[in-house]
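Hi there,

I know you've been waiting on this one. I reran it after we fixed the sequence typo, so this is the corrected version. Both the input and the resulting structure follow.
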Amino acid sequence: MSSLSDLNSAPEVVWCASQQLTELCALTSSEPQDHAVTKLEKLPAEETVAVVGSAPWAALVPQADHQIAGCATISVEGLNEDPAVLAWSLEGGTEMVPAEPPAWPAQDAVQFCPLPAEVPYHEILWRDWEDLSVQPCELELGSKKNPLFEFRVMSYNILAQDLMEQGHDLYLHCHPDILNWDYRLPNILQEIQHWDPDVLCLQEVQENHYREQLEPTFVKMGFACFYKRRTGRKTDGCAVCYKQSRFQLITVSPIEYFRPGLDVLNRDNVGLVLLLQPLLPEGLDLKAVSPLCVANTHVLFNPRRGDIKLAQMALLLAEIDKIAKTAEGQYYPVILCGDLNSVPDSPLYKFIRNGQLSYQGMPAWKVSGQEDLSQQLHSRKLLSPLWPSSLGVTDNCQYVTVCQPKKQGRRKYSRDFLLQFHFCDVACERPPELILLEGVTDAKPDPPPYWPKHTAPVNDPDLQMLIPRSAGIIQHGLNLTSVYSHFLPQRGRPEVTTMPMGLGATVDYIFYSAEPVMNGNTGGRRLYRDGVLKLLGRLSLLSEDVLLLANGLPNPFCSSDHLCLLASFGLEISSLREG
């Protein structure tokens, strides 16, 4: 097992495509601001952390009062602005023209060569910390404003080794040495340890690696860990870990999306929902700060099965609704992390963010926006209802037992009473789709001699599940918005969280609870402002052209095919009472 003490002992493996080397040198010499690069020698010595076989991490631990050199100045506008949509102003007023990304190397033309020492990977993959707090409050008794319980959340798809080896064709651009788990594990642990999140949501966590290596290491780092493996024969799953010094567990609920007999829920994806109580300094009442609901999931990849993606998300939202709802019918603050295999502004994304989706007649491939399959003949279309009432989930993404209390005085029936309908005419009717097998399915079952010949059907409305259904519309009431804006104004390019086959895309998200702005709806996009849960900062993402210069993902510096997402939040402490 690789431990944190071995992080600096792994062999150095630094490779890139020779086709990209010229572009890399030109970009670093002529457009240093384009990457917002702060030279390593300008950083304080304590800000750098050694990385496995490579240059030190070029990143800063989040600090509210620290402005990173070379960053764009960030300002947060008034209440009519979405917290994730920021106003940017460029330093110097000069126009920045992004460099054209080099072509992705073809399979037969891949050549690996070492990067020159003067252009280390950490300068290519520089990620800025964006401070979004206007006037951060400190936990002081004399503060005029409500102080904040500050914490950091990381979401990271770490690429399960089994999945990588099964899809080896996706990683032909990588040198084989950097795909080895013994190489990747220290890099992943180093990155998590460097950013030091208080809550860690991981996807594609291979079970044996979790049990033997990850969980023991996280426990030593002070985390309490929960894991849910995918159902069926899958070897990976999702994990949620939290610092025991910052939170205590109220409840945990694993979710399996597979439901036998339902075509719309026939896949093995899973999720986890936790309700955590923030721990305040000694002498302060825990009731002064709200519990926090944290959810983590990895939604189905298949771009053609948007119906399954929506049904999986509806189940997750129903579980969050159950866990995060208070006795008064309100919601505790929610943070939803995960790999949703859907791009920004896709119908699935809009459903989460806007709280409503009209899906009747929508092509299933369109739900996630991963691929344009409009030319495909006979594509699957979404019809109402998306899932059957037997699932027990309403079109408002709530469990029936939660949204509708049981009727008083409901009659209960004994087992013997119900068994008398075992051989009724309806039960003995042969289904038309049943395969005809002589001597097996060609005969009507005969009841035993004592069975009653005529049984009057029971017409009792109490036996019917009264599930309100709407015509092709699903919705939820959680009021979630994204931490990231999905666009890099400085570079004029979209943000990227993953890069399969050299094509960048955003599929990973951190959503959080916010307050919708009254009459704040522009072009079908709901506007939000911070409520009890405030977004204080985030780790910037990269663009596709920058990742191409580093030979894509994974590379010697980033050991997953996804980038980690990191955000800093503050929970309002309503009052400071003695415990």
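Quick highlight: The radius of gyration is 27 Å.

Best,
R. S.
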